[in-house]
Amino acid sequence: MKKSVFLTSLLICTNIYAGEILMGTTTSLDDTGFLTEISKTLKNEKGIELKWIAKGTGEALELGKRGDVDILFTHDPGREEKFIKDRYGVKRHPLMHNYFVVVTDNEKDLTNYPKNLNKLLSKIAKENLIFISRGDKSGTHSKELAMWKEAKIDKNFKNYKEAGLGMAKTLNLTSELQGFTLSDSGTFLKVKDNFKLQEVPLDEKEPLKNIYSILELSNVQESKKDDIKIFIEFMQSKEAEEIMKNYGKNEFGTPLFFVGN
Fold this sequence. Notes:
The protein has twelve helices and ten strands. It is α/β, with parallel strands linked by helices.
């Protein structure tokens, strides 16, 4: 009898904690610690172990194309839609957003800097100020390139430099060189005190909205499909929304992410 009870309990426990998902994702969701928070709750509530590979969005999408991961959590709507159109994915779920911010050394006097994004970029290029690009085909890099194009400014000035690094390391380099860079607001808030950086005040936030979405892949193992469904439903639940609404709020006075797109 005791042996039977033990085996039954073992089978129940094994079933509860059997699920595992490998996700391709962006460095910002990793650097901010957001995924660590989500993964704890997911395991406690749903019994699914969430693991991830953090890359720039471009590299994360390539992981999805090759079938090296089970799901994606990225932030580049244009490339995500193309990913679906090219039949690598079946559905895109926009979940949350924050904003891109232009940042620079915190000792720099920004009084005479334009509050209009296009004019700011023009000043940086014309005065040959140091601008550090991610240069890594990430979602942030993609947005930065779109900004120069929208402003009709040639970015190939002498002090435009490509780092080829993740967000936190790019911010560190920007601080060291006292330059400018584009960052997602979440990573910036999380690490700015370490790197002595400040946000350049701009008059419009909406053009700098940064939307994060989950992408379901076309080809996934049959054994993973139920866990993936549970994960997506969890990320759309009120419980996950509360994590989004509150993550970082106590520490920074504002959440690092906002629900919806």
